[in-house]
Amino acid sequence: MSPHDAQKHAFKARVYHWANKLDVKVNWLGVRPMRNKWASCSTNGHLNFNAELLGIEETLWDYVIVHELLHFFVQNHGRLWKSLMRAHLGNYEVMEAELAKHA
């Protein structure tokens, strides 16, 4: 297994860890190049994550993963979404700011 494949496997395992924790059914999971965003999801359980995530600190993976999985419950970034982010990741704004440096 190449280092890239190992990193991709570790990332997907982290997605499934959080999906189980948040009780989200993932029907399809992809890691691929994306131009303008870190991730996307659809209401039918399809998740796509930007392949560039494999090259950043794993500590920031949780921010992107939880951010996307919470959209299965809350489609916007309003007060409820923010409180759920805080409940699962604590001071998530620090991670958000750190991730912005990679954009």
Could you give a short description of this structure?
By secondary structure, this protein is of the alpha+beta class. It has helices spanning 3-22, 61-70, 79-89, 92-100; strands at 28-32, 39-41, 46-50.
Task: Summarize the SSE layout with pairings.
Blueprint lengths: L2 H20 L5 E5 L6 E3 L4 E5 L10 H10 L8 H11 L2 H9 L3
Parallel strand pairs: 1-3
Antiparallel strand pairs: 2-3
Helix pairs in contact: 1-2, 2-3
What does this structure look like?
With 103 residues, the protein is of the alpha+beta class. It is globular. The termini are far apart. The protein contains 4 helices and 3 strands, in the order αβββααα. It has one domain: Zincin-like. A 3-stranded mixed beta sheet has the order 1-3-2, covered by helices on one side.
